[in-house]
Amino acid sequence: QAMMKEFLLKHKLYRILLRGKGLEFEKFRLYAQDDDASAIDWRSSKRANALLVKQYRDERNLKIMFVIDVGESMISGSAEKLKCEYTAEVVASFAHLIITTGDRVGSILFGSTVKDYRRPMGGTKNFFRFVDQLTEAKTYGGASDLDGALNFVLNYVLKNIDSVVIVSDFTSFTEKTAKLFSLVSEKFETVAIMVRDPLDKTLPPFSGEVVIQDPKTGEQMLIDPKMAGKAYEIHAAEQENLIRETCSKNDIDLLPLMTNKLFVPTLAEFLKARTKRKENR
Q1: Are 250 and 164 in contact (CB under 8 A)?
Q2: From CA 170, how far away is CA 159, in angstroms rounded?
Q3: 93 in Cβ contact with 131 (< 8 Å)
Q4: pLDDT tens by residue, 177-189
Q5: How far is CA 180 from CA 106, 162, 248, 258, 263, in A?
Q6: Which distant-in-sequence residues (6+ apart) come within 8 Å of 275 by Cβ?
Q7: Which of the ends of the chain has fewer CB neighbours closer than 10 A, N or C?
């Protein structure tokens, strides 16, 4: 967390990380020595024969809404940390950066229903209440109804929210979910963080049979991983492609994370790349 915060502040990424849909370009200004070189607008600089950077009308007190999957599928994992533990660390680091910059964090925790909804607030007390929720065992469980959570966002979240950050393993992502993603992205600036375990991509190569259960219906099935493995991998790859295509079509930035890899370098590079894209728009 400290490493990521130092990296982001050093490169001044947060000022244009989550602008919301309303922040407007104001003017060009001369490049200063303490500016990040990635902020230079090379086309305008060439015309003006001077190094220029884009300046935006400053809009603080941003309101960021985290939509977090706390369903049963997030309690699984084969790495050192379960998906829910890994997610809690990622979200806590991100939220801490937002709150300590003076902006506000809200949250929607969902399983089979929306379990908790908190409007964006600032301050360290709000941050610690938020972290307590994410680390409380009773928060988790039940099916993961992502479609229901997105409908809640569309129907009940106020329009003055600047950005929505959806955090899930997206293992229940369907064509219907893709349409809801599109509607949410039209209303809010949207970021999707996909937290997956290696088991979400491929079954372990062991002999024998295992029982798997559908978290939504409770239906169980006895399978042989060796025989079902290929079909499982194909389905997982197709589903992930649908998620990536949906995000690409709707200008949603997707951050895929794996529980067996450190998230800080990946998240820092994601934020830096996102900032560059926003500067070039």
Answers
A1: no
A2: 25
A3: no
A4: 999 999 999 999 8
A5: 20, 18, 14, 25, 27
A6: 11, 13, 16, 17, 38
A7: C
